[in-house]
Amino acid sequence: MNFITLQTDDGFSLPALHMPSAQGQGTPMVLIQEIFGINDAMRAAAQAWAQDGFEVLCPDLFARQEAGVVLEPRVPEQFQRGVALMQGMDPERAVKDLNVARQWFVDQGRGDKVTALGYCLGGRLAVMMALSTPISATVSYYGVGLEDLLPAERINMAPCLLHIAERDTFVPPPARQTILERAALQANMPAYVYEGCDHAFARPDGEHFDAQAADLARQRTLDFLRG
């Protein structure tokens, strides 16, 4: 695990965590952070997906504001810091930066089958990538604000898997219903609701971690990305 530097289209030097696959040359994956920077949870996620055969690249999306941010969500002040950084981030610029990470894999000779996977804020950005970049497939874990992002008609977009927590306080039932209805319109956007689970149910050691749901989501993700 080490950091590399990506050169963006506007000349910014973007740090990104790089985790080679544990199984030789793996499937390229752009991993998209939560609002807490590339903290221990994101490093653990990178390691876990590398163990499953992916080569992981996780850009530091807050680097344009402050590089190397590492926050603990259970500390209220740090949680609020993450919210402030998210609000200060330009989502469209973030998607362009994530696409630079996708292009890095292509330029490294890994082919054009590059996947993306994100959590929370990253879950929303993963859907944005599916809508607007040449990514081959994306996975969104409890993405926020998807009800305002997903189109109300079928469009051409990359396959995208949605993991939705039934009790997600950031996605109330009416919003969840809109997400499910709009996902059903697309050609390849399976959406699963995890009963009894709250936001961030797949974050190990997190307040709402649910091992059974996390394992199920992981298997569905592997089936989707390997299919």
Automatic annotation (TrEMBL):
One of its GO terms (molecular function) is hydrolase activity. Residues 20-226 form the Dienelactone hydrolase domain. Pfam families: DLH. It comes from the Bacteria. InterPro entries: AB_hydrolase_fold, Dienelactn_hydro, Dienelactone_hydrolase-like. This is Carboxymethylenebutenolidase. It comes from Vandammella animalimorsus.
